[in-house]
Amino acid sequence: MTTTMSMRKLLLCALLLAVVVTLTGCWNRKELNEISIATAFGFDKNKDHYRVSVQIINPAEITASKGGSGRTPIITVQQSRGDTIFESIRELTTVTPRKIYASHLRILVIGESLARDGIAKVLDSLSRDHELRTDFYIIVAKDATANEVLRILTPLEKIPTDKMFSSLKAAQRNWGVTAKVDLHELIYDLVDKGKDPVLAGIRIIGDTQQGQSQRNLNSVSPQTMLKYEGLAIFHKDKLVGWMNSKQSKGYNYILGNIQSTIVRLPCPSGGNLNIELIHTTHKLKGKFVNGQPEVQVDVRVEGNVGEVECDMRMGENKAIALLEKELGDEVKSTIEDSVKRAKYYKSDVFGFGTAIHRANYKAWNRMKDHWEEEFAKMTVHVRVYAKIRRTGSIVESFLERMEE
Question: How do residues 347-370 score in pLDDT, each as one tens digit?
């Protein structure tokens, strides 16, 4: 009995020793005092060289409990000598005291000039980096360089990147004029012959130089701000044009990305009213008619009357029916305007080609190599079903009664 128990203890010890020997441990660990945490990268092009900018957290200012020392919470470093993206990023260590740690990256900004030249090489380099997570969002600097965007200090958030990250999600969900696209989604759209990519555009509002000062960060009314504005249309990996705010909403209606937004409608007697959309659904179906590809887009919207600036009796059924028709017509016009813009650039950002592929893969294989030409001339049918759920707690606007 004693001998058996001793043998079991010996085997257990041997097993534990074998497990310990096979453990690798944290062989690649890095202490916080050995790294610089990057929250954003920016890429620009200068002739044959890439210019890489990185926004690094200043930990002393972020963690300060009593206002810090008055220095900026972030530092933006630029390196413009690299012939390749990987070389440029690594060369940043010549101007930063520590190695760049990019696992907490939230935003990647691409300058408009580089976007027009092509972004495939940038994405290929980033996708091979084992330290990078792929859940950061990619945006395009509109009429600016990526470096200029990353140098702007914004109020409300100590780290400008946090502001850009949060605003991008909120603007798509509650307004519908942006698109949050991460690295995986962008690469997927690039390799899919039935869909071209889009990226959100960001613009500097105000003076660029003033936006880099501490005064802009501490001002009650900042003179320089960052604002998301429209969508960048790509054909393959090159930026070819822009959608305005209305066209960007149309894009998001088609893809079902809008959770809520505001639609402004004219009143028959003059004035306007606003409808708050509270629910939207979409359906996209490809088909062939007489051998030609066509797409059917169905969108359903539900909303509440949010603001009335005219004489309209909301309690009457005919008023509600009129509003529903006007709402449906306005959403349909927005969608058609977006499709028209994309056709102008021959860029299928909606994925109509993917829908045609699902409908008839043999026919798709015959046209996929010249799909941009087919897309530009194809028929797109749009149907919008609109429903008004609530008109508010009063059926008449008191603004009209005040004017009597």
Answer: 999 999 999 999 999 999 999 999
The 3-state DSSP class for residue 76 equals strand
CA distances from 78 to 22, 72, 85, 151, 302 (A): 43, 16, 13, 10, 48
Compute CA distances 25 → 29, 314, 384, whole Å. 9, 69, 58
Query: Residue 296 has which token pair?
Result: 């059917």
pLDDT digits (tens, 9 = 90+) for 69-116: 556 667 777 765 667 777 777 777 777 767 788 888 999 999 999 999
SS3 197: coil
115 CB-near residues (< 8 Å, 6+ apart): 140, 199, 232, 234, 238, 239
143: left (phi over 0), alpha (psi -120 to 50) or beta: left
Identify the helix (H) or strand (E) that includes residue 44: strand 35-46
Residue 289, amino acid: V
Indicate the pTM of the whole model. 0.86
49 CB contacts (<8 Å, ≥6 apart)? 80, 81, 82, 83, 88
DSSP for residue 270: S
